[in-house]
């Protein structure tokens, strides 16, 4: 640009524009490719920008997430993406925090018991009461007070860390810069020699000699190298864009083509980030869906009452998995009760980690009960003998060690002995007042993506070693690694073991 500008000022405009044309080609290709990618990323960002329902001056208002300020009261429902870090004041909700933790299982949140509005204690001390920006409410309704917004939120701090990282030049960039620098130095020396020889040796006018030297320098300068590099990298970015992969910086295409080790997250990358029923267990048998043709009859009541204990159109990932499992394996049987609504419901609480839905029956005084929840809570509601509790605990422990999330399921009947005058039953104060029968256990897991084994095989064929990184239990990590074919002998190294290694050992 500098040499072309000097030639434009001192020489013929046509020749200068011809020389500068190559430079503008390079700049144009780079800007067009990067702007196209930036527009796509901005569109995705705008699409995912949350809107918040806030309580201001006693009125509910729907506002853009960026307009939320500290002290605002957020009204939260199922499916809402939380707009800021906030403390739960009222209600009980479950939140999908996989964006921050990588774990697809929703986290239960409880109202904050102590005041936290002072300057010395602006946020709760316990994460069980704290909601994080960009996470999603999967169950319940709540009211929360905003503690932090923007860059001060947990996800904002991650963004700040990412923005502060410095990306080193790629090997191709380093090599081309060295070559261009050396050739540029040579071009400068030859151009100076050309000017001096023409002016001093041949006696030509200084301006003519100067223009001749600049033309020689621009001829020697390897502007075609940046052109070639940019064109090929832009073509690479365009090709992977056809596979729906966006490249923010075209230099990343070269890095992607040169990797020898690929470190990948587990949740949502190797797995679908969507829960599915992986196993059913009754005292005398187990059922696993893979390779099964039908659901054995002894498991029908367990699947039926798991569905009855679940809303028909749930948002919670585990409840979605239960409904999908039941509709698949019980389709066409009398065990599917679509459209049947409960008369009353006992919600999950901090005291009882189980929920019970009460349904009407043919007898107005008889009611059908469907319960699901933590296995130990359901066992307690069923008033089981110590030996039965120990058997369920052993089954639960064995499933948990394989990385499964386990729920207990029970059924029962309740007779309304004191019907109210208006016909509304006098529901018991607690689920403990029911007589329930334990039906078994439902185990759920985040299954691997179907196309992952083929992708891993392709990586191995290309000489790329794949490492899985996860916050899960080592048993879960090993099980997923074996299912996707990560390695024939997958080795697990835990965070505690990594902490004691130096860089060379790691």
Would you write up a description of this structure?
Helix 9 (300-308) crosses helix 10 and helix 11 (375-381) runs antiparallel to helix 12. This protein is 40% helix and 20% strand. With 506 residues, it is an alpha+beta fold. 29% of the residues are buried. The protein starts with a helix and ends in a 7-residue tail after the last helix. It has a 7-stranded antiparallel beta sheet, sandwiched between helices. Strands 2-1-3-9-4-7 form a 6-stranded antiparallel beta sheet, with no helix packed on it. The chain contains 15 helices and 18 strands.
List the helices and strands and how they pair.
Blueprint: H1 2-10, H2 13-48, E1 51-56, E2 59-64, E3 73-76, E4 85-91, E5 93-96, H3 98-101, E6 107-109, E7 130-131, E8 136-139, E9 142-148, H4 154-164, H5 171-201, H6 206-220, H7 224-241, H8 251-258, E10 261-265, E11 276-282, E12 285-287, H9 300-308, H10 317-329, E13 344-346, E14 354-360, E15 366-373, H11 375-381, H12 386-401, E16 405-415, E17 436-445, H13 452-461, E18 465-469, H14 474-484, H15 495-499
Parallel strand pairs: 10-18
Antiparallel strand pairs: 1-2, 1-3, 3-9, 4-7, 4-9, 5-6, 5-8, 11-12, 11-17, 13-14, 14-15, 15-16, 16-17
Helix pairs in contact: 1-2, 1-6, 2-7, 5-6, 9-10, 11-12
